[in-house]
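Reply to thread "Modeling small-molecule complexes from scratch"

Following up on the discussion above, here's a worked example others can learn from. I took a protein sequence and the SMILES for flavin-adenine dinucleotide and predicted the complex. Inputs first:
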Amino acid sequence: MNNSARAPRVAVVGGGLGGLVCARVLQNHGRSVTVFEREASPGDRPQGGALDLHADTGQVALRAAGLLDRFRALARPEGQEQRVVDPVTAALVGHQRPAEGEEVRPEIDRGQLRGLLLDSLDAGTVRWGRAVSGVDLLDDGTRRLRFADGTTEDVDLVVGADGAWSRVRPAVSAAEPCYTGVTFVEFGFDDCDTRHADLAALVGDGTMMAKTGGKGIAAQRNSNGHIRGYAMVRVPEDWHRAAGLSLADTPAVRRYLLATYEGWAEPLLDFFRRNDGGFVNRPLFVLPAPHAWDHVPGVTLLGDAAHLMPPLGVGANLALLDGVDLATALVTEPDVDAAVRAYESVMAPRSAEIARACLEGLDHFLPEDEAPETVPSFREFLASR
Ligand SMILES: Cc1cc2nc3c(=O)[nH]c(=O)nc-3n(C[C@H](O)[C@H](O)[C@H](O)COP(=O)(O)OP(=O)(O)OC[C@H]3O[C@@H](n4cnc5c(N)ncnc54)[C@H](O)[C@@H]3O)c2cc1C
């Protein structure tokens, strides 16, 4: 590590939730930081669905970043409503509504939360269109970022906040994400209150869930009358290739889903029939739990890059907490190395415990031993082609 008196050069790789909140807290304390983001601009791609931020994690992080009030102005407490419906009849079999004033897990669109974090940063903090391809550890302690465009940047600390397929992670760990056996196939509707009032009523203000036989359907209200949902299935990762499907062939994916969910209630199958756009394939990957590494000076990880886990409602919350914890350590510990060690000593055990619980949670949520009920219909579908 360079020992000169100058301020450490901190590079955050990845302008997702964890990386941006880390930069925000550093700037709140007058520290300089640069975020390198591979997307070309803030509006480069849709940011995905709604996230619930928990009072004891995500909201704690936003309060530390001085952003809780701005979050509350955008959040939807009514989105905490949970509905469970019977897969065969679509009758409501479980229902929880938030109490008046309850803010334990209010929902916010991921795009709104990211926008809020971006707006909180000094102009020019995020360098858009800068995809990192790797990190070199130089003998003098400098960390060299290599970019996909062939350029490099030398810094003192690289923060890998670049998500599931982190290009920073190989600098500290050989671990790679592995497929869980579960895939989410995403669908969505605009203007649901006017064009799909029946489906909007089924979903309510928050999340609707139906599941049986190792598969499920979840649908969730987002802002601006949008509903986003997922067919959740235990299938081989290459299910679409095995079925001879192109994922871009919306009618073929629809037929596949209708065959897989044969016998389910018509209103639930309507989620597939009326899907506005294409279907998005989201195979779920996880890192080993725990994902531990020997401390490497000048490089660390946060969020999904450090502890990718099944999406059971904690990943974004933990990424925010990691970002705040790392930044706080960087402004309170005597030097960068002490700060990173302090951060890692808190983040690693916290995430290991939660990652293990989420893996068990996924098995409980879509039990593997129920999957044979899914597999025959999967095989029947293949045979029918
Ligand atoms: C279907 C689904 C639903 C989910 N629902 C929830 C939920 O309800 N609640 C919850 O808490 N969590 C949820 N999660 C998990 C949550 O999305 C993640 O845990 C969270 O986004 C992790 O944040 P992050 O900042 O670590 O990474 P990300 O949000 O993945 O951000 C990484 C950033 O790095 C950038 N990047 C990637 N590679 C490079 C590169 N090489 N160079 C430069 N930049 C790069 C990306 O463009 C991105 O902007 C869900 C996940 C999925 C898949």
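What I'd highlight from this example: Confidence is low (pLDDT under 50) at residues 372-385. The chain is about 35% helix and 20% strand. Questions welcome below.
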